[in-house]
Amino acid sequence: MSTDLKIETNRANAQLSTGPRTEEGKARSSQNARKHGLTAKQLAIQPEDQEEFDELFAFYQAEVNPQGPIQQSLFEELITAAWNLRRVRILQAGLDLLDPQYDRLARHHTRIERTFHRSLKELKALQTNRTLRATLPAHLVTRTPVLAAPLIVAKRSQERDKQRKEEFDAVTSRFLRTNTA
User: Fold this and answer.
1) Terminus of the chain with fewer CB atoms < 10 Å: N or C?
2) Which segment of 4-8, 10-14, 145-149 scores lowest on mean pLDDT?
């Protein structure tokens, strides 16, 4: 076939194809290129898995109890990673170890696992800092930014107080020596 004939034939065939017509058909065809959804911008949850996801979400929500928008964002990353790790295990279970897809899924697993542990570590640090912040003296709490590490603030404050006390003691000692002599 010549190129012009191929082009004309394709145009004629395209006129016969109307694509999906119903909303359900359009939704289904929009997922044609999706392989596993592990790199999707939005978390992929099949309708039949929604109840299991909701249980996982509720369990983590009760356990982690995120406070504020930063913790909530990290919590959402944690949940997404936890859900996708579960999905990777399910997908890997259906494959032979020699299947090239198995290796790709293993790489996704490693990437997702890093995200899970990083989010968990950052949440832990934020929640620890929030708890420690509550133990700071009132004069430090008002001057300390929310994301500051309370242990460092308290330590520096103690060092400053110690230095001031030493300076005060030195001045007092000199004053007493000069006035008692």
Assistant:
1) C
2) 145-149
